[in-house]
Amino acid sequence: MEILDEFDIKIIKELEKDGRVAYSTIASNLKISNTMVHQRINRLFESGIIAGIKPVLNEKQMGYDWASFTGITLNKDSDSAGIIEALKGIPEVTECYFVTGSFTLYLKITAKNHEHMRKILYEQIDNIPGIAKTDSMIELGCAFKRNVTL
């Protein structure tokens, strides 16, 4: 059994255009019943395929002109759970991934300016017990960002 059929994909594409679109509008655009749209979207939420519908913020418009991709080396990888909880307490850390290679964790950090970034890195992240080292690359702009192709 396929996870997504043709109608699921069409409904998701409608939501990608505008997450606030009325279900009745989706039904009308796709020439299917309103009930079918409701049932499909509910199933997509319940299965975890749609994890949520939330606004996509333009950080630069909000005054956050700097971003970095920061690799973190831990003293002991087994301490990662506590370190991740501490990182969750820093609002400017917007993404955190487990990775292979030289680092244990890889972060995206968003800051208002270089001084703000310095404070996040040196005064907050470097003071989390168990972090041995950080290595950052400054983001110069996003070429594109998208969902996986359906």
UniProtKB/TrEMBL annotation:
One of its GO terms (biological process) is response to amino acid. Residues 4-65 form the HTH asnC-type domain. Pfam families: AsnC_trans_reg, HTH_AsnC-type. GO terms for molecular function: sequence-specific DNA binding. Keywords: DNA-binding, Transcription, Transcription regulation. The keyword Mitochondrion does not apply. PANTHER family: LEUCINE-RESPONSIVE REGULATORY PROTEIN, TRANSCRIPTIONAL REGULATOR AZLB. This is AsnC family transcriptional regulator. It comes from Flavobacterium hydrocarbonoxydans.
